[in-house]
Amino acid sequence: MARQPAPPLGGTSTMTPSPHRTLHRHRGVTPRHAHTTAPTSRVPARGQARSRTARFGELTVTYLEHGAVRLDTPEVAWGSDPETLRLMVVVEGEVGLRHSEAAATLTARDSALILGTSPVSYTSEAPARVVICDMPADHAGLAALPRSAPFVVGRADAAVPCALGAFLLDLLRQDADRLAPLARAQVGDVLRTLATSTIMALAVAGCSGWELRRQRLAALRHIAARYTDPELSSASVAEHLGLSRRSLQRLFEGEERTVAQRIQEVRTQHAITRLRDSRLAAASLAEIATLSGFGSTVAMRRAVQDATGVTPSELRREAAVATTEGADEPADDHTGESLHVTAVDG
């Protein structure tokens, strides 16, 4: 039996694909009976949706028109079935995809591949039209598909997803039910080839960038958590991530600062904060250096002076003076003031 794809809108029963082309009308999450009249040009209002679905073997193709919609709970997440890959192309309007680690806004001709690894919310503030292709994740042609990202995006200038979207839209405009079995099988073969190559291209490009971003964030989190360790270095960060030093350097190519510079920056900012903190006025410079991850007061002095133009001792004195001056300023106190009223002879 063919695998059932994730429902396009909120899991309503009317969106479940049938073996034939169908036309559905929805209002909110209450299913309506299917009917066979073509969609009118009237744009769906808020909470309404119209869809047309056709099955070609294990692939399900859906054309969807909807009004303003928000699918942002686990029960109605967009494409959260791990056994189904969802490829979508925006025909008209603007829709948003959001995950805890990423967000994207799609406009006409933009495409997205939802990989089903975790729930992705789908929102639109105005009417939109999209075409969707659901495909089993265990399809033989997708055995090596990377799935490290919750979704990846292809923009309007990506020719292949746009061409596939146009092909899918045209398929749904045809009376596919009347195709001869051989012709239908041939269409299915072409669709499978196009969908497989498009999905693989989007996933490889998108997941590669996603993985690099994830590794960069992991490196920065490790630095933030371990900056007080004087042994923290590019080499130790690379070892923590299971990368070579060269691979770690490549993660930050094109960035403003190297890993070593980021470590120094974090330590310096913490040292400056502690030197200005009146609660640490009794702490020695050596103690501040140790708390901030510097191996010596000399290293801290050099870093602080490069960042502020003054030495740690001068920075501490400036902060103490500012604190004292702030304490000496008289507070605005209106207690005991009297209101004098002068009588005017009439």
UniProtKB/TrEMBL annotation:
It comes from Xylanimonas protaetiae. Residues 217-318 form the HTH araC/xylS-type domain. It holds the Pfam family HTH_18. This is AraC family transcriptional regulator. Signal peptide: none annotated. InterPro entries: AraC_XylS_family_regulators, Homeodomain-like_sf, HTH_AraC. Residues 1-52, 309-346 are annotated as: Disordered. The keyword DNA-binding applies. One of its GO terms (molecular function) is DNA-binding transcription factor activity. Keywords: DNA-binding, Transcription, Transcription regulation. Residues 21-35 have a biased composition (Basic residues).
